Amino acid sequence: MPLEKHGVMIILSSPSGAGKTTLVKMLSSLDNFEISVSHTTRQPRPNETSNKDYFFIDENEFERLIKNEEFLEYAKVFNNLYGTSRTPVIDKLDKGKNVLFDIDWQGADQIKNKKLDYKLITFFILPPSKDELFERLSNRDMKDKLIAEERMKQFERDVLHWINYDYVVVNDNLDTCFSKIKNLIDAEVSNGSKDYDLEFIRNHVNKLTS
Ligand code: ADP
Ligand code: 5GP
Q1: Residue with CA nearest ligand 2 atom 19
Q2: Is residue 126 part of a domain?
Q3: How many domains does the chain have?
Q4: In this structure, is residue 43 part of a structural domain?
Q5: 186-193: long-range contacts at Cβ-Cβ below 8 A with a sequence spacing of 24 or more?
């Protein structure tokens, strides 16, 4: 049973470009919320800061951390390795901080299967449309069409994982999406009523994949 004095684990996953990193940053401005900073072997983007957005490390260092069993979860995504180190997460949760994870479905599955003694809430973020997703990916990745096209190809596979999450939220207007997530977290923590329409989500997924 999770203890009330402990923090809550909140996972946000999505197909690349749907906006989960932006949303995780917004949520981290709330009182008592902190981001779990991942390790990755990916190269930093121009706007990213080392040790804040990611711990950027090489493959040898990543393998060493795997061997030392320092990861709570890790996975290969788009040919790069990504992982969450266990100790900082557990320290934060034990101090009562809510921890936000921007991780993919493989990592979410691993954390879910661990059945840790902390409350876990999982969110899957969807784009309003495929056209909007391509637009966001192209803008973020500095008009690099190849990266955007590669990630669009992956979209069809990634979107299928929506079914394994507690809540699926469409990120059309950013502030509306942020409020929906915040309200669902509040309702989960206080056992209040949840404003959530699964049928709407099912229809939206059908539209995105047809
Ligand atoms: P992800 O982490 O899911 O890959 P990001 O958070 O990096 O996605 O968002 C991808 C791009 O889309 C970023 O440039 C971000 O600023 C932009 N973005 C995120 N949410 C919205 C939104 N609701 N409307 C317009 N642009 C958005
Ligand atoms: P990006 O390279 O765009 O920052 O992230 C690519 C994907 O890797 C995203 O789906 C992101 O959520 C995921 N990711 C980032 N950090 C981790 C992590 O520590 N573990 C896992 N499993 N996925 C991660």
Answers
A1: 83
A2: yes
A3: 1
A4: yes
A5: 188/8, 188/119, 188/121, 189/8, 189/119
Residue 114 lies in a domain: yes
Q: Are strands 71-77 and 167-170 parallel, antiparallel or unpaired?
A: unpaired
83-129 confidence digits (pLDDT tens): 999 999 999 999 999 999 999 999 999 999 999 999 999 999 999 99
CATH number at residue 23: 3.40.50.300
The full DSSP string for 60-128 is HHHHHHHHTT-EEEEEEETTEEEEEEHHHHHHHHHTT-EEEEE--HHHHHHHHHHT-SS-EEEEEEE-S
Residue nearest to atom 10 of ligand 2 (CA): 104
Q: Is residue 32 part of a domain?
A: yes
Ligand nearest to the CA of 175: 1
Instruction: Tell me the residue range of the domain where 88 lies.
Output: 9-209
Q: Whose CA is nearest to atom 12 of ligand 2?
A: 103
Q: How far is the CA of 193 from the centre of ligand 1 (A)?
A: 29
Q: What is the mean pLDDT of the chain?
A: 94
